[in-house]
Write a structure and sequence with these properties.
Strands 1-3-2-4-5 form a 5-stranded mixed beta sheet. It is globular. It contains 3 helices and 5 strands. With 114 residues, the protein is an alpha/beta fold.
């Protein structure tokens, strides 16, 4: 048992929406820009990243009101994973304006493994 108040002040994790092949373009175009995290359920680094992405979403909501932060499960959305070369996870792609550009035209984050 944990001590009383041990979780006092702890925030609930932010729930992130998931994209599918069918709704990818429509959901991205609903926002001015989007940060898409390509993740896998078996990927430990992906699971560690999820709480941070929730915090990023909260920060972006206060700074850039119309920026989506969403997930794409590469184990389910294999066509999207292939389109964006998401073979190593986690992979973060930022769509600066949410026109879905050709692969390779999105901004890649520093330190990303290619």
């Amino acid at each position: 048992p944990s001590a009383p108040g041990a979780n006092a002040g702890a925030q609930e994790p932010v729930k992130l929406d998931s994209l599918t092949e069918e709704d990818f373009e429509v959901r991205l175009q609903a926002s001015k820009s989007a940060l898409v995290a390509f993740v896998a359920p078996w990927c430990g680094a992906c699971q560690s990243l999820l709480p941070e992405l929730g915090r990023v979403r909260q920060a972006l909501e206060s700074l850039m009101r119309d920026t989506a932060v969403v997930l794409c499960d590469v184990s389910r959305e294999t066509a999207l994973a292939a389109r964006y070369n998401a073979f190593r996870t986690p992979l973060l792609l930022f769509f600066p304006d949410t026109r879905v550009l050709a692969p390779g035209l999105q901004i890649r984050f520093e330190g990303q493994l290619l």
